[in-house]
Write a structure and sequence with these properties.
By secondary structure, the chain is an all-alpha fold. It has one domain. It has 12 helices and no strands. Helix 1 packs antiparallel against helix 10 and helix 9 packs parallel to helix 11. The longest helix is centred in the N-terminal third of the chain and has 29 residues. The protein is globular and about 60 Å long. The model has no long low-confidence stretch (mean pLDDT 90).
Length: 276
Amino acid sequence: MVVLFVVAAMAVVVPAVAGPLLAYGPGRRLAGGRLVARTREAVAGLVTTLGRPLTAVVFVLFWAALVIAVFWPVGLLAHSLEDAVDWPVLLWVTDHRHAGFEDFNWFYTALGDREPLKKVVVVAAVVFAVLWRRRFWIPLTAILLSFPLEQYVQAILSGMVNRGHPPTGLGSYPSGGIARVVMTFGVIALFTALTWQLNRRWHVVLGTVVLVMACYEGYSRIYVEKHWLTDVISGILFGPALFLGYAIAVTILAGRYPREAAPVTEILRAEAVPAA
């Protein structure tokens, strides 16, 4: 029982520490690397040829296909580890759970369920649409589409791998609850950063908060036995991977990538000033 409490603490502390380390270490080096530079050039060419809206659509579809191609074999590997890894973990958790702590984890794991997050997505879309005024259609469209994007990509992977679920739950590969937490609260963090022109430090803070929420969502899904361990590990990788491509597509649509445009706050301020 004590081990489960320790692991719960690690599910919070490890991502809280790893988030900034990854952002200021490998993340910064990757952002300045050749691959990112070539991607920026390719996207710039597409924007010139197709325009921003169509380029954003093409990019997000390409990225979704890439994520499926990568996580299909990962799912087959996870399936092959079911007897060696997933069953022992499931049985061990069953024998060591604490009733009071189980209640808390049932409460927290509902954060990743579809119904509450649908409401969060709709509210976020409306709020940011109001804040963006004449460009309201960007957050309205992008935020509302984030939910079905995650749902259908995850459903495609689940069908391709077809590994089934634990006898104690209905969770499939990869963990949709984790991916929904990443996409939903990642979208809110992304539009918060775009709307108020937050600096890199705030980007890291917001990203780390979302990562902590997702990691503990994964822990809670294991604790209440909704998911296999390998589903959860895959979900923690799958959610951020899918969100990365989505975030780039949003910044393309908003005019922030591959080249800088007028800050959203300046646009909003200019629209508020009546014409002479």
